[in-house]
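Form 7-S
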Amino acid sequence: MVTAIRAIVHSSPSRSDLVRFYRDGLGLGDPDHLHGEELFQVGDLHLGVNSGDGRVRGSLPRVSITFVVDDLDEQVEHLRGLGVPFDLDPTQDSSGTRRAICRDPDGNFVVLLSGPRAAGARKRDTIGDGKASKKLSKKALKQKLKKAKKAKKKEKKKR
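Output:
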C-alpha cells in the first residue's frame, strides 16, 4: 500500500539549467545535495533534479514520481500481476532503503521505496554532506522555541 508521495524528480541532460530555473527563477533557494541529486524542499515534498539513473534506460528529459510503500515486494508483485514491467527490480542501497522502478501508462517513471529511511530520506536539518541546512526539523524548531521561552522567562525574573 502506498503511504506517501516523497518526491517528483526531473531527469535531464540540462541539469544545471534546471537547478538555476528552480533556484533563481522560482525562488526555491539552494538545493540540498544527496546521492547525486539536487533536492529542493517544497512543503513536505522534494523536487529533485538529476542527470538520470544509468541503471534505467530511457530518453531524457523525463519525470519520475517517487512513492513510499509499506511492503516493496508485495507492491511489485501486485503491479507485475497487472502486467506492469519493471525497469529496475527491487534493490537496496547502503542506507537500507529499497527501491524498484516501473513506468506509468504514459511512460513516466514510478519509483517505489520502502525501508527505514524511505519516508524521511534524511533529516531536514542536515544536508547530505553534513552541513547545517537553512530548514529546521520540527524537533529543532521546538527546541529553539523552548529555549527562547526560557530566556524570556529568565529575563522577566531579573526585572
